[in-house]
Each structure stands twice: as C-alpha cells, then as structure tokens.
Design a protein that fits this description.
alpha/beta, 45% helix, 3-stranded mixed β-sheet, TIM Barrel, 19 helices, 17 strands
Length: 560
C-alpha cells in the first residue's frame, strides 16, 4: 500500500513538472532567423513514407476484404473526379521496384501502413486470417531489411474494415463511435506483433487521428462520411485514444521483453501563430488552436486527460446549449491512469501554419468542433501555396511546434513522421524547385530545433510516391517520385527533389553554403532527362491507344 502511494505521488510530481514546463513556451518569439548551417547528430534517421490505401491498389485481390475507403470512394461525388484507390500506384505488385527507389536514395527507414482488411478481411481476428496478406507484408519487411532499410509500421492509416458477416462493420458497430472497436483493433495489432514483431521494432498505432475523427465523423469529407456535428469527432477520438493505450499495454505486457520494440502514435500538428504577438487574446486563441488540434490527443497520452482549455470551452458551450453534460467525453480515474504514459516515442506529422485570432461564436450556433474553440484561421497571401488549398509554406512554424512539444510534454523522443508539399496539377514537369525549397527551409527549421535541444531522432519525407490523396483523388501530388497514373504499369519517375533530398541525407544536414548552393542546380539538371523519358513514354502510350482505337477492317470473302 505504501509503495503504491509513493508511486502515485511520484506520478503526480512528474505531471506537475510537465505542466510547469509548458509555461516556459514563449508565444512572443517568432522570428525565423537566418539559414543555419550544420549537421544532425550521428545516427539521425532519414526516410520517406506512404500508406496502404493510398499506394497499394489491389483493393480486391488475394483475399483482401473491403475497407471503409473502398466503399466511400465508390460512391459517386465523394471523391474529386470520382477517383478511387482501386489501383493507385499498384504498390502491392511493385515492392521490388519501390525498394530499389529507396535504396537509390539511401533511405535509413521506410514508413508504411498495414491494411487491416488485407490480413483480416472481416476485421475480426477469430473469423479468418488471410495468409496472402500476411505473406505480402512479410515480403515487404524482409526485403527492406535485406536492403538495410528500417521498417516503421503504422497499424491504422484510415482503412477500417467494412464487412462483417454480410453486414457492414461500420453500420453494425458504428466504427470508431463504438467502444467495441478498441478490442477489435487490439486483436489486429496483437496479430501484427505476433507475425511481424520479430523484425519490426517501431510501431505507430494511428496516423493522424484528428483527420479520422473530424473528417470522418464531423464533416463527413472522409470515410465513413458521417456528419455527427458537435459529438461525432469527440466520441471517435475518445475511443481511438483508448484503443492506442490498450495496444501499448498489450505490447508492453506480452512482447516488449522478447522483441525490444517501441510503440508510439503519429499526430498531425499544424502550428497556430498569433496574428498579433502583443495581443493576449490572440495568444490565447493560438494556444487553443494547438490544444484542440494536437493537445486533444497528446495531452491524454502524456498527462492522462484532455487539455483543460478543451474541457472548459466545450463544457461551457454544452451547458449554454441546454445539455446536462459536456459533449466532450470524460475519462474515469482508472482510464486516466491507463492512457497516461503510453508513448515510447511521439510521431509528428507537420505541413503548414496558420495565423490565429479570437472569434466568438454565439452559444445558439449549431454544435460543431470548429465553433467550440472560438477562433479564426487566417493566412498571409504572400505565403507560397503551390498545391493543396490548406498547405502554405511557413517554415518557422515547424521549429515553434517542436519547441512547444518539448516544453509541454517533457522532452519526448520525436520522430517526424510526415513533412512535405504538394502540387495541384496533373503535372508532367519533374523539376519541382518549390518542393526543394520547402524541404530546405523546413528541414533547416528542424535542425535549429535540434540545436535548441529538442529530441528529434528522425525525419520522414511525405511522400515516396505520388498517390491517391483521399477526397482530392489524384489531383494533388505529394510524391518525390512522379507516378504516371494514366499508364497501366504505373511507372515511377524521379523528380528533382529526389536528388536534392539524397544530398541532404548523404550530408546528414547542411554542411556549408557552397555545397548547398550546388545541390539545387545539380538536381534540376538531372530532372531534364527524367522529363524526356516521361514525355517519350507518354507519346508511345498515345500512339498505342490511337492504334487500339482504330476501326478494325476485316477482309471481305466472296460467297462460295
């Protein structure tokens, strides 16, 4: 009993220290500063990423079950131009080709996800295990290790199994609205640990649960397409947090001693910068933005409960709307203890920054996650925006975010699990100078953060390939490699950014000004030949199509 009391006191003191440390973050210091030359610590890991549904294709091959994205994308009007991920990059059939690209880039790691319905077609472990799916990921993992590339594996990148005994899993159980998903997901994760854990040492439970919750259950922009405004996102997130914690405890109890691996989570984290750093209301709004976005998931996993600002705002608005309890679920004392401390490392996926200012929404306004935090997002029209409408290049936010995480959460081990930029065009131009500039500026801000003492251990460029971009279909391209989706074989062509990123990897950073200035010039030179290859392939494809479309002329035979 005494030992238990001492342990709880220690946990309380640790929590108090972490909370106190968060007060050290300076919201008024936002200068980007000059470019900093230097290298990352020895052993820093460089990689690239992907996800199963976005790249694999083979949506109904070799026993794979349907996912919610298979069903969602097949509904007309849900995806730009009614695109689907049915074929995507055909990555399921091109493991050797894609690993050759990684080897050429000298990547240290590759981040990918396992498709839950590919190995458990019904989503339920006791129903049926698909050996073909297990074999596919066995081959991928083995081939990566043979080429000295470390696999970092995501267990859930949005492709929830859809079918269960001829009934929709989503309809029967409500997907992440239902707490029963916690056990289903734990069974799936445990199977992955059993089959792959002797070789995989870095596990990510969920990628960007914010999007799963908000876009899947609040706005309906993503699968499963539910619009449960004001409640759906909060309920889904609550179950996702508990599912993550259960998987961490399962690994900790059953596998850690044997396999010596680590389990973390990947949180998407756009940064919010106060419009006026001298205005306290803007500073408070910016902190609310970060807490409602990032702290929503990080704070329970590190401190055992939701951010106080979320509880205050949602609770007050719920009361004003005549509700007897908050729309934000609560953790029991046992659950708080259970979820706290369940991150061996923290994955951070970061792409952009917004300016934030106060905006009060009246209490009679319709329930919504987006009105609960009383703020408005703004952008500077001078910020570069080559691709996605939400993605502006604002490098200084990356260093600010990493510094915030260090002070707020007790200096955790961080892996950057996604950072990159898109182009919004059906482009055949492989000389992506804007992406090289983005990588240069963002990676340099990460270097500054490391020099500041932030414990960043690795960086993942997003993404290895152009791929299916969810509700945007194939209209946006994040890849370092161009994929010709119009060709049956989906050939890959390196963009200039491949050569640029290779030089950052080989130098482990930015050694000196003269060398760095030559990188972009040399990279642009190499993309010219790739453009010529792509143009030739397209000409040949058009010629073949024209030949195939020509009317057939059959010989005329005289009647006998």
């Amino acid at each position: 009993m005494l030992q238990h009391s001492v342990l709880r006191i220690c946990q309380f003191l640790l929590l108090a220290l972490c909370i106190f440390a968060s007060e050290d973050f300076d919201w008024t210091k936002n200068e980007m500063g000059s470019f900093q030359y230097g290298t990352f610590p020895s052993g820093f890991s460089w990689g690239a990423g992907s996800s199963a549904y976005q790249t694999e294709g083979a949506w109904d091959k070799d026993g794979k079950g349907k996912s919610i994205w298979d069903v969602f994308s097949h509904k007309r009007g849900k995806i730009h131009l009614n695109d689907t991920g049915d074929c995507s990059c055909e990555g399921y059939h091109k493991i050797k080709d894609d690993i050759a690209l990684m080897k050429d880039m000298k990547l240290n790691h590759y981040l990918f996800s396992i498709s839950w319905p590919r190995i458990l077609p019904s989503g339920i472990k006791n129903d049926y295990i698909n050996d073909k799916g297990i074999e596919h990921y066995d081959n991928l993992i083995n081939m990566l290790l043979e080429n000295r590339i470390t696999p970092i594996v995501t267990l859930y990148h949005w492709d929830l199994p859809q079918i269960k005994s001829k009934k929709f899993l989503e309809e029967k159980y409500g997907g992440w609205q239902n707490a029963s998903m916690v056990n289903f997901f734990n069974d799936f994760a445990n199977l992955c640990f059993e089959r792959f854990g002797n070789r995989v040492k870095y596990w990510i439970t969920f990628n960007n649960p914010w999007s799963v919750a908000v876009e899947g259950y609040e706005t309906g922009e993503h699968a499963p397409g539910l619009k449960m405004r004001g409640t759906g996102a909060y309920n889904a997130a609550h179950n996702i947090i508990k599912a993550h914690a259960k998987v961490w405890h399962t690994y900790n109890a059953q596998w850690r001693n044997k396999q010596k691996g680590m389990v973390g989570i990947s949180l998407s984290a756009d940064w919010g910068e106060p419009v006026d750093i001298t205005n306290q209301r803007d500073i408070e709004a910016a902190e609310r933005y970060v807490q409602f976005y990032f702290g929503w998931f990080a704070t329970p996993l590190f401190h055992g409960d939701y951010p106080q600002i979320m509880k205050d705002y949602i609770g007050r608005k719920s009361a004003q709307q005549g509700l007897s309890s908050s729309r934000l679920p609560t953790f029991s004392p046992h659950e708080k203890s259970y979820v706290r401390g369940t991150c061996d490392f923290l994955g951070i996926s970061h792409f952009t920054t917004s300016y934030i200012t106060l905006k009060n929404f009246p209490s009679n306004h319709a329930n919504s996650y987006f009105t609960d935090h009383d703020l408005a997002e703004l952008v500077d029209p001078q910020w570069p925006d080559p691709g996605s409408e939400w993605l502006y290049s604002v490098p200084l936010g990356f260093r600010r975010l990493l510094s915030f995480v260090k002070t707020q959460y007790g200096d955790p081990v961080i892996y950057v699990t996604g950072n990159g930029v898109s182009e919004k065009m059906m482009c055949t131009e492989l000389c992506d100078d804007w992406r090289m500039q983005y990588l240069r500026d963002y990676i340099n801000e990460m270097l500054k953060a490391v020099k500041d003492g932030v414990n960043v251990k690795g960086y993942t460029a997003w993404s290895l390939l152009d791929k299916f971009e969810w509700d945007e279909g194939y209209s946006e391209r994040f890849g370092l490699h161009y994929v010709d989706f119009g060709s049956k074989n989906k050939p890959r062509y390196p963009k200039a950014s491949v050569q640029y990123y290779k030089r950052i990897i080989s130098s482990n950073g930015f050694p000196n000004q003269r060398e760095i200035e030559s990188w972009k010039r040399k990279a642009l030179e190499t993309c010219t030949s790739s453009n010529q290859l792509l143009a030739a392939a397209r000409r040949k494809s058009k010629e073949n199509k024209a030949h195939a479309d020509m009317p057939k002329v059959w010989p005329v035979h005289d009647e006998v």
